[in-house]
Design a protein that fits this description.
Helix content is 6%, strand content 48%. The protein is built from 2 helices and 24 strands. The strands form 6 sheets. The chain has a 6-stranded antiparallel beta barrel. A 6-stranded antiparallel β-barrel has the order 9-20-21-24-23-22. A 6-stranded antiparallel beta sheet has the order 11-12-18-16-15-19, with no helix packed on it. A hairpin with a 2-residue loop joins strand 23 and strand 24.
């Protein structure tokens, strides 16, 4: 007996409209129906639904052939990250996948401290090697077309053509004339660093954490909310897990969906006198 038509009808009746976005730049969303199997009580934080516990979904293989861990799943207005994919128990015909998901999507929150020459992480982009350095060197000079601020111990970077991750050591180096001179590093350079080689930073105050993402509604475009602004909700537990001890604040930078935003405002939701979640208003640029 062919059970596929019966399962398709079941998902049509019980499923919710969902979308799947594979990891990587340029992926296109796939639309399908998914049935939620569990995950605890949902909490409303403004317009965003929060599911603090792991959640399972069943989907038809005919609609979603090869789901991948790390992909994004949107279900009934909630954002999830797929952590694992496995067959459904007692599904003898192999018609379904079970998706093991956690709430939210990965973002990078850059929490800056200080100002001017003491700002960490520094402002700037397009970093390159400012002077050729030989393999074995314990320091390297880095420049940009424009940069201001300070590299501090714990900031990490890689150099084009060298897979080694280098960590800044010592008391830190402030930019002067758009250049960080003689930045002390560990380990020593594994290979020669060529003049002009691209440098990619992973700053100590960049925190990777899970958050839910939503747009503002039309009737909210007034006052401080502008067209194109985004809102995110991040649980305090996600900040703690990422090692972030400061509260989110205006001016923090957020990278999501391969775009960078500036935090316009950060507002806490409290539970038993302690922050439970944070809502951030973001603006591109």
């Amino acid at each position: 007996m062919d059970f596929a038509p019966h399962m398709a009808r079941l998902f049509h009746l019980r499923g919710r409209a969902s979308s799947y976005l594979a990891p990587g730049i340029g992926a296109r969303p796939v639309e399908f129906q998914a049935i939620r199997q569990g995950g605890g009580q949902r909490i409303m934080l403004g317009p965003i639904k929060v599911s603090p516990e792991k959640t399972l979904f069943h989907v038809l293989r005919s609609e979603l052939a090869e789901p991948e861990p790390g992909a994004a799943l949107e279900w009934d207005g909630e954002c999830f990250t797929i952590d694992a994919v496995q067959p459904v128990e007692r599904d003898a015909d192999g018609l379904m996948w079970e998706l093991d998901c956690s709430w939210g999507l990965d973002i990078v929150l850059r929490s800056a401290i200080g100002s001017g020459t003491n700002q960490s992480p520094p402002q700037g982009s397009g970093f390159t090697i400012a002077a050729a350095a030989l393999g074995g060197s314990g320091s390297v000079a880095i420049k940009a077309g424009f940069t201001v601020g300070k590299l501090v111990a714990g900031d990490k970077f890689t150099i084009a053509g060298d897979a080694t991750a280098y960590t800044v050591t010592g008391p830190g180096v402030a930019a002067a004339s758009n250049q960080f001179g003689a930045v002390p590093i560990t380990p020593a350079l594994a290979v020669n660093a060529a003049l002009g080689a691209a440098v990619t930073f992973d700053f100590a105050r960049d925190y990777v954490l899970r958050a839910a993402i939503a747009n503002y509604t039309q009737d909210e475009y007034a006052g401080t909310v502008q067209m194109g602004d985004r809102r995110i909700v991040a649980l305090q537990s996600a900040l703690d897990q990422a090692g972030m001890t400061d509260a989110p604040k205006a001016g923090d930078r957020v990278t999501l969906e391969n775009q960078t935003f500036s935090t316009v405002s950060a507002m806490a939701t409290y539970q038993a006198g302690e922050p439970y979640a944070w809502e951030l208003q973001l603006r591109r640029g």
